[in-house]
Amino acid sequence: MISDRTWRMAQVAKLYYQDNLNQDSIAEKLNISRSTISRLLDDARSNGIVEVKIKFPWQRSERLETALCKKFGLTAARVLKTVPESENELVLNGLGFLGAQFFQEIVQPRSVVAITSGRAVYHTVEALETHHLDLNVVQMMGVANCQNPQIDGPELAQLMVHRLGGRYTYMQAPFLIMDPEVHRKLFEEIPFREIISLISQARYAITGIGTLDKQNSSLLRTGFSVQSLEELTRCGAVGEICGQTYNISGETVYSDKAQKPVSLDLKYMKEIETVIGVAGGAAKAMAILGALNGNILDVLVTDQQAAEVLLLQ
User: Which domains are delineated in the chain?
Assistant: First the structure.
């Protein structure tokens, strides 16, 4: 049952945001103080009754998009115009907007959609406009042990379903398992095989692209050790998708000395009809290049800085 205070928050929010009454007018209309109106508006936002979206005028470089598609055989590309000093969070917001916009142009109702995790995927999902498409959203990796489960946990799949409707499934296992034998046996379990079967039905996938550079690697946030990153780099790895590492040619890189993630093997991702990779910044250019060389991606959403580096390779 809705509490009186929740009802009051919604009432005040409607008068302020939809009816365009100022706080003094609302206070007079409802016979309560202006300070109470201010608190109710703040609480309405913090409790999710009111969601504020700023539609920033993001600009694209169609010249770079065309060049990327021609050079790497992509189905499509979206390139965010940026300058070298652009703030990272602002770039992620822009990439998320372009990724969400493209995805909503192509997605069909009642489709299976596979997603990874991380900040780029979060910003893409968060930027989706609300529609009822009755999707089946499945995560391609286990739950990371991090401080922000909204980015690396089941909450990300829930957010997508909240935006677009449907149901979600996630791998009910941690992203990292230290015991190699336990890791091996997990992949033989029926629930995991069912997840793989569901992902094989996916028509679309949305993924971030990670670097193994210690200054920028998101794997460290998920529990990977510095030693594992160094070992994989020594073996030739330049990037990772879904925790699975690969070299500059896009070939998967393994090492018995490195930690092993619970996630989808990249060979399954290549079978998905449309894989959208979202990543930007010159620091990620080599990781993106490896994914492109390995034909892991069909669509690339990136920024001007990364695109210019990629086109010089």
Answer: 4-46 (1.10.10.10), 62-310 (3.40.50.1360)
